[in-house]
Amino acid sequence: MKKGLRIAIIAGLACVLALIILMIFGMNGSRKRQLTCGGVNVEFADGYNFVTAEDIAGYLDSEYGAYIGQRLDSVDLAKVERILDGKSAILKTEAYTTADGMLNVKVFQREPVVRFQKGDNGFYADERGFLFPLQSNYTSQVPIIDGEVPLTFASGYKGEPVSEKEKVWLKEIIDLVNFMQESKTWAENISQISVRPDGDLVMVPRQGKELFIFGQPDGFEEKFSKMGKYYTTILPQKGEGYYSTVNLKYNDQIICRK
Fold first, then answer.
1. Contact, 135 vs 169, CB < 8 A?
2. Would the pTM of this model clear 0.85, i.e. be above it?
3. Is the distance from CB of 123 to CB of 131 less than 8 angstroms?
4. How many Å separate Cα 143 from the centre of its chain?
5. What is the pLDDT of residue 107?
6. Domain boundaries in the chain?
7. Distance CA 90, CA 25 (A)
8. Nearest-CA neighbor of 133 among 51, 38, 32, 220?
9. How close are the terminal C-alpha atoms of the chain, in Å?
10. Using CA atoms, how far apart are residues 196 and 220, in angstroms rounded to an integer?
């Protein structure tokens, strides 16, 4: 009898608890249906400033339509994310609503690793090899590569390179830049990288007048090792400014020319 009574009491309490939970969710759902969207709150997940909160609000105003004043539970969050994810400097967004009547958007911006300058056109590439235009709001301090950049793009282009050959070249460039950044020594000592018409990369140091002919963006660990040997063995013997070019692109050779 006592055991059966305890089971009945526990079952009854569980039913009461379930009813309370349903009532709370029902009240919240009813309250949410009565709420209207009062505005947008923007949170940035990184330290870049390619887009601003005002930009986000502007994109939604022009492409979503009237969301402020719309019933909160009818705001199309997937559409909000789709609009914002289509912007070149935005990697992804997360949109959600809260009980204070706000549309909330968390923004993850693209992280550029290198900047290319080809004539009047400039653009960034992120770690994944996605190209996107320079932004008027913000300039990222990343290595710049100019000259005869072998990438095909029009002004305002965003996306991956158009050919497999270009994708391979861009990946090699990103690996090269990452190596320089991780070493710190080369990131600090190389002021400019240019691409010659024959495709050779040329490294311009911050100090000295030598131009380092690097060749293609491959085998860069060995090439930087040879550049280090130039500074530790050849330069002390010949003196600064003795050579105008230092060719590193051939295996096991350092070719210096006056």
1. no
2. no
3. yes
4. 14
5. 97
6. 39-109, 111-162, 184-258
7. 35
8. 51
9. 106
10. 17
Mean of all residue pLDDT scores within the chain: 87
SS3 at position 249: coil
Record: fold of 39-109: Ubiquitin-like (UB roll) (3.10.20)
> From CA 133, how far away is CA 166, in angstroms rounded?
17
**Amino acid (one-letter) located at 48:** Y
Which parts of the chain fold into alpha helices (H)? 2-34, 53-63, 77-85, 164-183, 185-189, 220-229, 235-238
Which amino acid is it at 190? I
pLDDT tens digits along 115-153: 999 888 889 999 999 999 998 888 888 999 999 999 987
Tokens of 178: 């990452």
Count the Cβ atoms, other than its own, within 10 Å of residue 89. Answer: 23
- State how far the alpha carbon of 147 is from the alpha carbons of 77, 169, 172, 223, in Å: 43, 15, 17, 21
What Å distances lie between residue 65 and 57, 70, 75, CA to CA? Answer: 11, 10, 11
In terms of Cα–Cα distance, which of 79, 76, 97 is closest to 32? 97
Other beta carbons within 10 angstroms of residue 82's beta carbon come to 14
Q: Which CATH number fits domain 184-258: 3.40.50.11690, 2.30.110.10, 3.40.50.300, 2.60.40.3360?
A: 3.40.50.11690
Contacts for 150 with CB less than 8 Å, ≥ 6 apart: 166, 169, 195, 199
Torsion of CA 128, 131, 132, 133, to 10 degrees: 140
